[in-house]
Structure formats: C-alpha cells, structure tokens
Amino acid sequence: MLEVIATQLSHVLAVQNTGAGRIELCSAMGADGLTPSAGLIEKAVALSQLPIMVMIRPREGDFVYADSEIEVMKSDIAWAKKCGAAGVVLGVLNHDQTVDARTLRTLVQLAYPMEVTFHRAFDVCIEPQQALEAIISAGCTRILSSGQERNCIEGKKMLMRMAEWAEDRIIIMPGAGIHPDTISQIQDAAFPEYHMSGLLRFQPEGKQSEFFGGQYQSDLEKIKQTVARLAH
C-alpha cells in the first residue's frame, strides 16, 4: 500500500484514482510539513474516498515542544477526530533525543480510536530500539522512517532491523526517497506500507510567483508508476 501527501484540496481530489491507498494531509512542505488548516481538514475528510491522516505539527524546527504547543496539538487532534479523519501523524521528543513517552501516550489516548503514525522524528532518536519500544508502548499504529538516513534506500538495513524488533506489534513504513525508480530497491523487504510525497514543485509565471514563490501539484504519473511497480 502506498501513502501519498496532499497539501491542498486539489491534491486530495487528484489522487483518488491513482491507486494510492491513503493520504497524509499537511501544509508547508517547505518546512517538511505542518498542521493543515481546520478548513482543509474538514473538506478533505468530507470529500476523500481515501483515508486521511492529518499531520499534527504546530511549528517548524525540532520536535521538543513547550506545554503551550502540546495544548495546540491536543486541540488539532480533537478537531481531526471530530471531522472523521482516519488518524493523525505526529512525533514528540525530549531534549536528549529520546521519545517523550508521557506526552506521546497522552496524545495517542486523545486520538483514540484514530490511528497514530509516529513520523520521522524517529530518525533523530539516539537509541532507535528504545525509541521503537516507547512508541509501541504508547499505542501508536505505525512508524514512518527513513531508517535514520537521508532516505529509506540508504536506511534499508535499519528499517529491516526495526521490523525485526517490532515483531508485528507496529507497522514500519519506509519513506523519504521513494519514487518509481527506487521502489524496487526496497520493496523486496516486503514492508506492508510505503510513503512518498507524490508532489511536484512548480513555478507559475507572473509577479505573484516572483514575489511569493512556487507551489506544489500532485505528480499523478509518478504515483501511478510507483503503485504499479509495487504490484509486481
């Protein structure tokens, strides 16, 4: 199964018939993904036939959050649940780059019965096996990871070790660097789920683009090609 990213409602609608199995909804790809707006969450869940996983990340930067930021995350989780999202995507760490297990458990309990993906904050944890156990104990559904490397192809060995440690207690979902030309390099490990952005950045013509930058669109062909190669 392939999960893809959407940052606009147009992306959500565009990927419905690509063969992707799930959508991660976020904003601000330039900051590696932040919490989408309340309106986007509501409309995306209402209009999508695919499950929506909502990114819960209140700001850019690290994953060590102040109490006030945790309260924002709680409110965003509650809204995603009210809208009917399939789940949320989040990660919380301590200053020593260990999992903030107490906060994570609180957030997972608040999210229930939604699924919870612990995102690539995992990839900076200093003790990956200890981090994995903390994430499992908190009740998360899956871990999105590049195997603590720049991309999941380079991190394949660690991802396979993670799957061995997990012993079917949690889903290990490789992500970062997946596209049609690389999927064959990791699918032989038979992970049940994979994650790719599925987005293409472009620069529209005109002064607005010059002043305020480009934007993203769904790369439908690459999504379809990746899905097709996963099927073989």
Structure, explained:
The protein has 232 residues and is α/β, with parallel strands linked by helices. The chain has a single domain (2-230), classed as TIM Barrel, CATH 3.20.20. The protein contains eight helices and ten strands. It has an eight-stranded parallel β-sheet with strand order 7-6-5-4-3-2-1-8. Helix 2 (38-47) links the parallel strand 2 (22-25) and strand 3. It starts with a strand and ends with a helix. The mean pLDDT is 95.
Strand count, sense and barrel status of the largest sheet are:
8 strands, parallel
| CATH architecture grouping | Alpha-Beta Barrel
The share of residues in extended strands comes to 15-25%
Which fold name is given in CATH as the topology?
TIM Barrel
| CATH class category | Alpha Beta
Question: Radius of gyration in whole Å, from Cα?
Answer: 17 Å
Gross geometry = globular
The multimeric state of the shown protein is single chain
Tell me the total number of β-strands: 10
Supply the number of helical segments: 8
Assign the structural class, choosing from mainly alpha, mainly beta, alpha/beta, alpha+beta, or little secondary structure: alpha/beta
Q: Tell me the CATH superfamily.
A: Copper homeostasis (CutC) domain
Strand order of the largest sheet: 7-6-5-4-3-2-1-8
Order of helices and strands: EHEHEHEHEHEHEEEHEH
Unreliable spans are none
Distance between the termini: 12 Å
